UniProtKB/TrEMBL annotation, chain B:
Name this polypeptide is given: Iron ABC transporter permease
Molecular-function annotations in GO: transmembrane transporter activity
One Pfam entry name: FecCD
Main location class: membrane
Amino acid sequence: MSAATDSRVGTPGMPAGVDMVRAARSRVSRRHRLLVGALVVALLGVFLVRVLLGDFTVTIPDFVRILAGEQIPGATFVVMESKLPRAVLGVLVGAAFGLGGSVFQTTLRNALASPDIIGVGMGASAAAVFAIVVLGLQGVAVSGFAIAGAVAVAVLVRTLAGAAGGYRVVVVGVGASAFLVAVVQYLFTRASIYDAQAALVWLTGSLNSASWPAIARTAGCLLVLLPVVALLAGSLRLTELGDDTAAGLGSSPRRTDALLLVAVLLVSVGVAAAGPVAFAAFLAGPIARALNGGRTSLVASALVGSILVVGADHLGAYLVPDVNLPVGVVTGALGAPFLLWLVATGRTSRRSS
Amino acid sequence: MTLTNRTTRPALAVTIALAVLAAGVVASLHVGSRMLSPEVVWAALTDPRADDADHAVVTARVARTVLALLAGGALGLAGAAMQGLTRNPLGDPGILGINAGAALGMVTAVALLGVTSLPVQIWFALAGAAVAGVLVHAIAGLGRDGATPIKLAVAGAAATAGFTSWTSALLITDLQTLETFRFWQVGTVGGRGVEVVGPVLPFLLTGAVLALTGARLLDVLALGDDLARGLGRRAGLDRLVVGLSVILLAGAATALAGPIAFVGLVAPHAARILLGPSYFRILPMSVVIGAALVTWADVVGRVILPPTEVQVGIMTAVIGVPVFFALVRRGRMGSL
């Protein structure tokens, strides 16, 4: 496609145009490569901070020796059973949320139309809590319920909002969210006070339950879903231009729906592992876009999502002494002002709608 | 509004609403996990010396009925005043984040500052409600097209999410506070006892009087800001008074029964459909419908999923969300 664009611009008599376009395009892709590189470094940094620092400091040589299988009294247990699983799950969940949220925001062309605001995350939550509290299920079955709940809510919101899309999706989703919060709250008033902490996990999101089996499940799901996103993402830049333009340029609406469905699955996989980490899906896309000079980048969104979740988990664990705040409380407290700022400045929807 | 043909018999509508309310009160005294016969209830109410299990049950039910009536009436009135003031069909203290702000104020007082007396806690709830109301409207009012209903609803949802995050953060630091506020945070009239009414009542009454005196202003505002100015209203001061009444009503109702959403949305719309667009009628009718709604929500919540009790805040969400969807889908969002 790039060759076609270049040849059209480079008409005889305007050879400078070809170079200008080429320079502009390579500047964009160079910036993107630089950004992805910087984000990978940042993620690595946050990851190491989460694993090595805190109330129990581990040196890097010790960490390498622990990974190699050496038993260091105390340190091995803390790293392998608590800190490392939390950080790894944070990376996976954050990437799933960042990617899913960015696909939603780009496809629906509205920064507010992220899965956590329009009730998809809460749908997964409500179904998972129902499975735990009422049916007494555990493990994979709970994840299955979470995924089914997210898909059901996504379909419902899309149907109720009608074809108009845009802001109406957001408001219908806000209503659906309110309803689902009520459902989760009801289910947890039936549980004992000692499960109230668990209720907060399913309402705000937390990495407290990180374990290697959960990581394996999440990683397995992501391994299946990520290639599908990569395959479908080509049409994303067309959908950004608006439904009609996209259709005119040969992007099938069905392809868009498939992409949205994969995004729902990504988010529900994240929710099944860590609860609906408030605003993680909502924040990652716009931050990545701003860093990338106003261009959508799914890779950057996923990385920003991981950095957010791992960083917020570290803040939540050590910001207030002796209190381990769930990661969702931190991202929620950070995300709400940002959401209000978006509403205030009217920067929610771009171009059409 | 094209509903004038349906408003020809307002007396009938008012009678039916009052009858539904009265039936709700009667049902609230009789219905529950322990069903009581009318004789038993009557005996418990009239005989001050009675001191058996039935008497205790009736006393508890009287308390929650009073709470339901007050909270429901206050929220219905607050919603009506808010819808009129901002000309926003989605105006509801729950949707616009005011109840969540009041809840955060109250939990801050209890968990952080160790305030144990309810009269002091109410001031924190009112302060939280005021901050939330001003914040949400100020933020939605920024930008090019001003405070559209949709922007207000989204700003309210954002504020609710943020306030709830902070409330959760405060609650999990303190298991004792969590135990106290766990059910309150969902919105419930049960288990608080009638003694919480006393300190809150002055605020409710002040708010109600201020709101009801604002009926003329709201009617004029419905014609549009320019016309209101042309008719000689000092809109600034009047708006302040009505806004204050919303804060008082919503903050006090939250202090009583927790953050209950959707009552302030449903009650005024029902009143408007029954009685037409005049706020002289909508405001008092919203009190009646709001009180009836919360009372019935409490009664139904007690028996719908035995052996557990479904909190009022959950029941009103079940009733209110379809109404919310219908209003959004109707698409004439700026039409109040």
